[in-house]
Write a structure and sequence with these properties.
The complex is a heterodimer. Chain A is mostly helical. Chain A contains six helices and no strands. In chain B, the strands form two sheets. A four-stranded antiparallel beta sheet of chain B has the order 5-6-4-7. Classes of the chains: A mainly alpha, B alpha+beta. The interface between A and B is medium-sized, with 34 and 30 residues.
Amino acid sequence: MAIPLYQRSYDCVAEFEAAAIQRHAEAEQLGKRSHHLGAIYLYGYSVEMRVKALYFRNAGFGQAAPISNKDRSDGADMYQVLGLLVKPGQHDIAGWATLAVAARATCTKPYLAPPGTRIVDHATDLYVMWRESLRYRSTRPLGAEFRLVRRIADWFSLHYARML
Amino acid sequence: MALIRNGGVQIGRINELARQLVDEIRSPHAQTQPVIYENEIAQTQTYHVTVVWDAWKGMPSEGRTRTILSAYAAIDSAKATAIRIARGLTRSEAASTGLLPYAIVPNLRRVDQLAQEQMLKLLVKEGAFETGDGLQLRFRTLEEAESAYEHLQELMPGAFWSISQEREPAY
């Protein structure tokens, strides 16, 4: 019997980064066909994957090192140590972006204010609109909302290599 | 044809809000806004600053961050360069991201319409704002919420108010 689809890979930085590229490409396809809500939903996940990959990279995880649920929970629990006010939720894009930047500040190559703050700014602007619960909605987004989410997701895609 | 430069308006607004923020950092007022959370991370000698302020409404995060960094630079440039995270959030955004987990909510179902109107007016007067769950007073700590609860009880005694707490995210 074939291994169930969801078990054919495992969570790690490399997989998060590959998934981010795939979700971004899928969002573009949906956007081109004017399926804007579905596109926003997937753009959000592409950014979520990138900020989580960034956090785990900055926390010292190798490309292929498995990331368990406990690692996620432990990562979120680092919020106080890293000087954050709030523990990020599972899909809290702004929270994980903040955690990633804060974790980087403890490394030998911290982000200087502009690149670090921009990561948090763009993730925050996205998270004002995006929640994983969008999958339960049939709301029609405004054109401006779609364009803003696409612009933010494109920004993360374009600048991701420089965040490493 | 009219010439409309909206970039200039934004810069003017950033300068104006930065000036107000400088005043607030130099001599904090007891009023509700802006609330500045300045967090020093001793091991890295860096700072995280979060400013909760409804004046941010309509301004993208980048402008808010510029405002905060500009205000700190006007006061202490060394400290400004040590800021790694600068976030500006409206009260509603702060509540939705878990920064204000304690809420005083009105028990509207227990009372008649006249009392309901009184309660809502009182909440607004005390600084309540619209959240996804209706009009609420929100706080960062339980102590702040309890103090506000006691104050409300003095103004309108009875079982009109409840304190609720958002749960931390589960994994």
